[in-house]
Amino acid sequence: MKIIWTIILLFTFNIGFSCTCEILEGIDKEQFNEYDLIATGKILSVDFGEFTQKIEVGIHRIFKGKVKKMTIILSSSSQSGMCGIFPKVGEKWLIYANGQNNEFSTDLCTRTQNITRANDKAKKIIKRDLNFLKQNSTRNKI
């Protein structure tokens, strides 16, 4: 087990310590189909682990996907260099995630955005995405 972690750490060290993601343009049907869950929600709690954080999200609206209840557990890296998201309790987020059974994962390289703290550029992207999602939603408002 120690050998596996050493290899992972060496590989991470060699590729650098910063998250690098492709710049995403407006969402389209191809990108829409890449995710198991697309929803808006409010952050209820954040539990930081050494490598992963568990984020409890109260769902406001589902555009795509299935959940069993109105809260989900969202996993993301707790390391900024590994593209983790860093939400705060009470913030509203637009979530693009993969997973099932109310346990999903996301990172900065998805389209996941903080609605509460969005700058002007991010607000335009979020607004454009929400318009697309409303028109192409496979779910109704909860």
Q: Give the CA-CA distance, first to last residue.
A: 44 Å
Beta content: 25-35%
Count up the helices. Answer: 3
Helical residues, percent:
10-25%
- Estimated structural class: alpha+beta
Read across the widest sheet, the strand sequence of neighbours is 1-2-3-5-4
In one word, what is the shape? Answer: globular
Please state the oligomeric state of the protein chains shown. single chain
User: How much is the average pLDDT?
Assistant: 85
Number of strands: 6
Detail the topology: elements first, then pairings.
Layout: H1 2-15, H2 29-32, E1 37-48, E2 52-64, E3 71-77, E4 92-100, E5 103-105, E6 113-114, H3 120-136
Parallel strand pairs: 3-5
Antiparallel strand pairs: 1-2, 1-4, 2-3, 4-5, 4-6
Characterise the protein shown here.
- This protein has 142 residues and is an alpha+beta fold.
- It is built from three helices and six strands, in the order ααββββββα.
- The N and C termini lie far apart (44 Å).
